[in-house]
Amino acid sequence: MKKNNYLHGKNILVTGGDGFIGSHLVKKLLTLNASVFVPQRRNNPHSFFNTEKLYKKVHLVHLDVKNKDRVYDVVTKHEIDFIFHLAAQPIVTTAYHNPLETLETNIMGTANILEAARNYGKVRGVIMASSDKAYGKLFKDEYTETDPLKGDHPYEVSKSCADLIGQTYFKTYGLPVVITRFGNIYGPGDLNFNRIIPGMMKALIKNETWEIRSDGTFVRDYVYVEDVVSAYLFLAERINSLKGEAFNVSSGVSFSVLELLHKTEKVLHKKIKFQINNNAKNEIPFQHLDFTKIKKLGWKSKIKTEIGLRKTYLWYEKNLF
Questions:
Q1: Mean pLDDT score of the chain
Q2: 158 lies in a domain?
Q3: Is 107 inside any structural domain?
Q4: 36: closest CA among 14, 61, 4, 5?
Q5: How does pLDDT run across 153-202, given as a tens digit for each residue?
Q6: pTM for the predicted model, two decimal places
Q7: Which of 135, 143, 155, 222 is catalytic?
Q8: Residue 22: which CATH number?
Q9: Which sign does the torsion angle of CA 37, 43, 45, 47 carry?
Q10: Element (H, E) at 19
Q11: What is the count of structural domains for the chain?
């Protein structure tokens, strides 16, 4: 990606900016001399946001995306130019047990962000985080952006709906929205240990047995967090010509759970103790993204799986509490 000056000096709101992916995005935006606003509802001393001391370099704002009046107040008060909307309830198992919180956060939280941008009228772009889960169970080799969004369980439905709402705000109101659909994102700073790579790394470092929820055959794309950030910036820079579009973003590399386990063992030269529980509920058995659309525009992932896994392991080894 060419050097990005498009966001220099802009006021940028990053919802979820103190989370795993958001903190990496914030770190990059700061190097571009953007003025970054980050909602912080709780402070996790072990987070990437804290270990990198990003809280010292951004404008912290009190904001819950479910509060539409507060969202509008933040957007207008700080004269926000761009919004990267990453805030969500992101865990499939949590959504299963607490669907209402997931639906309220992921659907209405997204609607509140878009409505604030519409009413303010000066936001130049909203870059939204959707997910491969928005497609639901399509049972095909590769998912393309033209495939229907067919989530059928709480988390997947919340992502399908939020994605469609983003499209609605462009088609109905002309709001400059771009939607991103990623596979499984991994890298330093992910503290959700019921996800595959964080759980595996924790078990390895703590010498514990890693419990696999599925039967080990579920397949996902894996993309390193720095590649995710580069895709966000790539699309933001081109927002005027891409608004209203959705983009699959992937490294093109997919693994089953057991394939990823063996790959990690090979890369790190370590054995991982594991147990297959096969008690996963409502999870999609196979997903692989066709990302030809963004690739044709000139974006591609740069971090090879071997390098990504090593960098991820080293962060957990240093920071795992």
A1: 95
A2: yes
A3: yes
A4: 14
A5: 999 999 999 999 999 999 999 999 999 999 999 999 999 998 999 999 99
A6: 0.95
A7: 155
A8: 3.40.50.720
A9: negative
A10: none
A11: 1
